From TrEMBL, chain A:
The gene is snx1a. Belongs to the sorting nexin family. This is Sorting nexin-1. GO terms for cellular component: cytosol; early endosome membrane; Golgi apparatus; lamellipodium. Its main location: other. It comes from Denticeps clupeoides (denticle herring). Residues 1-42, 57-121, 137-218, 291-326 are annotated as: Disordered. The lineage of its organism: Eukaryota, Metazoa, Chordata, Craniata, Vertebrata. Residues 308-325 have a biased composition (Low complexity).
From TrEMBL, chain B:
InterPro entries: AH/BAR_dom_sf, BAR_SNX6, PX_dom, PX_dom_sf, SNX5/SNX6/SNX32, Vps5_C. It comes from Denticeps clupeoides. The gene is SNX6. Belongs to the sorting nexin family. One of its GO terms (molecular function) is phosphatidylinositol binding. This is PX domain-containing protein. Pfam families: PX (PF00787), Vps5 (PF09325). GO terms for biological process: intracellular protein transport; retrograde transport, endosome to Golgi.
Amino acid sequence: MKMAASSERSPPPFPDAEDQESEPALRDEDSDEGADIFLGTNPLEAMADSTFSASDVLSDLPNDLLGEPPSAVFGDPLSNISKQESTSNPAKQSSKLPSDVPCDIFDPLHGTGMEPKDDGKNASLIDIVINPVTSAKDNLPVDDLLSQPEIDIPAKTKTEQPAELRSEERPKDEPLSVASSKPKKDLFEDSPEDLFSELPKTKAKTKPQMDLFGDSSPDLFMDAKAAADTGPGRNAPADLFSEESVATTTSKSAKSNISANSIVTANSKANGVHSDEEEQDIFAEATVELSLDSPHNNRKTLDTTKPSEPASSLSAAAGSSKAQAKTLEELEEEESEDKFELNISITNPEKVGDGMNAYMAYKVSTQTTLPMFRSKTFTVRRRFSDFLGLYEKLSEKHSQNGYIVPPPPEKSLLGMTKVKVGKDDPSSGEFVERRRASLERYLQRVVCHPSLLQDPDVREFLEREELPRAVNTQALSGAGFLKMINKATDAVSKMTIKMNESDVWFEEKLQEVESEDQQLRKLHAVVDSLVSHRKELSVNTAVFAKSVAMLGSSEDNTALSRALSQLAELEDKIEQLHQEQAGNDFFVFTELLADYIRLLGAVRGSFDQRMKSWQRWQDAQTTLQKKREAEAKLLWANKPDKLQQAKDEIAEWEGKVTQYEREFERVSATVRKEVIRFEKEKARDFKKQIIKYLESLLQSQQQLIKYWEAFLPEAKAIA
Amino acid sequence: MMPRAVNVDLQTDGTLQVDISDALSERDKVKFTVHTKSTLPSFKQNEFSVVRQHEEFIWLHDSFVENEEYAGYIIPPAPPRPDFDASREKLQKLGEGEGSMTKEEFTKMKQELEAEYLAIFKKTVAMHEVFLCRVAAHPVLRKDLNFHVFLEYNQDLSVRGKNKKEKLEDFFKNVVKSADGVLVAGVKDVDDFFEHEKTFLLEYHNRVKDASAKSDRMIRSHKSAADDINRIASTLYTLGTQDSTDVCKFFLKVSELFEKTRKIEARVAADEDLKLADLLKYYLRESQAAKDLLYRRGRALVDYENANKALDKARAKNKDVLQAETTQQICCQKFEKISESAKQELIDFKTRRVAAFRKNLVELAELELKHAKGNLQLLQSCLGVLKGDT
């Protein structure tokens, strides 16, 4: 069996061997039965970050994976593993392919297993909420949590497969999968009509079953619990992990697959609970639901499919996750203190080309101990539009899930034109420096984000020598305009969508964010005016200094003349001080505020995403309601031919409602987590920057004292 | 009442001490209470006060200027007209904008403007006081009858502002004077001292004028910066009062700090204004007065030379010789008298100037140090607290 081989291949990092195995196990099966389905569903889930490898590798396998394994499989420290596997691939491609995929996904993570000490830190860096754990295994939960679809795949395929297996004996299962797994709809579209013989019953069962197919983590956790319940009668939720391990050992493959997944999710969930209490509600809800929703359906599904796979490795996985749970809290604390192991600096802005086609290229240097990267230090050259392109990619993938994607600095047509045209204009130098600094901050914010750091595009941006030219950033440069339109439509939808906010937390937070935004804008304007006044002061001081020097030169009392020229020198120095201080006002204070005004925009964006998700759910509910009414009418009108279709539609929409509700809950949870993370970061940033700013003020006062102290005897010497 | 902004006097003997003990600002005028302490026998009492307005100061100044007797002296420059218009306008604007800001902001702004108004007021008073002190310290001018009336007569002097006709006359006089001044200045002086003083004063006056304007601009931007810090403080305060999280407390502390530092910054600007800008402004006017003296002397010199020429001509023609001789003698006397006192006046001017600059620059440096140290201490303690917290 494949997994045996893979576990032998990498014996030392014992936990990740299981990861490899548990994941392949899922896919091995579906590759037998539904490889096509699997492939078909993938593009739909390509949005999620870690499915990158799954989708990319699967769909363009010959090119990416086999062609140049080390580069396609990004930053793979243990490339020997992936190489071995990929070389063995061509022969067994059809059957083994899916099983290789997970390996590749986690290859970079295996690397972490090689350096266990580093690894704990890495994990902590990767996700604030998810706990850092000392083994590479923990990277798995991370990935799973971040990319729900990743979990989906196994979950769906798995449940499908029993459905197919038992399609003759238990036809009623079919409609369920149709309803729940949208991508496969076409496949099953026809079957339900014949299979639907006991409609009322299926209807009743739909809901609990849905949970299996749903993609939100609570569901999976439920499944896990359900699985656990099927085990030898242990119910205490506190003992969750051990329970599961028991459950998994006793049950067979399909079931153990579920638990494997759910352990993973449950794990990360549990971590989330440890990290912030708020998440507990969601978690608690999930468990409550679980007790209601785990009827025999699950069990049936699980029991009926008793494949041949022994699940011993899974119990090990569960065991390790249990051990990991114990240290969660300690690690959580450590994590916040641990310093980031990834330093990014942007230097050497350089003008490339001439005339209006000229652009600035920046050197992006990365220093890291994170094993996901190929080396410890590397440098690439990027231009501004590349940064915008990165943002576009990230935003497209992550913002709909409620993530706060740090926005890049705005494009400045005027500033850049100056750079292009004027050569030695000091203001263009300032512009370039300003942009360099803000790009640096932007990138640092991106890599500071545990989920974004995992994104292949981020890694590619940092590592890859040549990036394909970001095309649509030209449109993005007009993004100001587009954004304006978007904002306008958002504002309209905000007005029309009166969200009946059930969660006070969100309501309050949104208000907070909005008023903070307002205050920050005001503060920004004031600090900006301070900058310009300070600059003005600096200029005026310089002019005055010159004037005093002239006055001194015409003064015919020698001592007074000398004192006046000293005063002129003093004012010259003060002018420098003012100028430096104006620079500090700007770079330390104003830019911080500008960044946070942009970031607050992103925060509001994530709230909007949550609302959109809510709206979708509500719309689905409304539609469902309508379908039900239509069904009632049909019943009344006694039109049995159309009735079946109506029932199908109801089932479909019921599924959608549940799915959207899940999605909404998931987005809500993410938003909440993100906002908390954002606030933490904001507090840290503000404290750091303002202290830095005050220190600059302090320094300039010290200088001022020095200058005036030197002048005082000169003034006294006037006679 | 307050320390004099610009000390321009040499030591006085104490027989005549004048100060402005009080001032009252009315709608469009300021009433100064001029307080005199004197042992001079010409006064009925040793100590007395009268109420005077700006116009009366101007009248006194003009009477000095017009008095031929004082042609050889540097007439103390008249105090500038009180100008509260800008400040009043700001207050009015504030009243209009009351609805657009929070109550705290409004109160704060109002306090700011009131403080500004008070500062202008004090400055005005100080300028008027300086004028009187200068006169009281002058060996000749202190004995002037008009001055004594100004100090002692406890009724309205019923001087009126100049009417349009007079203003027009003044204007033409000035035009003639400056044209003449160019003419006179072109004449090579026989005396090296005066020749030197002439070139010096011409240059000095222009430069001090420039420096004065530049210092005003510098101080104005300093004040704006201080205002910005003030607004930063209040915005930070609003940010800080949003809730009671850690950051908010942090904001409140920083706001408190800025509130204090901006006060210091504003005081720095105010002190620079008082010690530096006002000094320069005063010497702008005083150097103008000295220039005027040189003009009068130059004029007298030209007159004297012309009289000499006329006498030569009369002698050659043997016609009106006596009259020409008297004119020549009068001109000669006048010129010599002016030259005699003018030399001392110019020497005194220099001594006074050096002393005033010394005093003001020392005080400026001390104040700057005091404020910078105050700022430093605030920053240090605040940073200590903030760093302790984080």
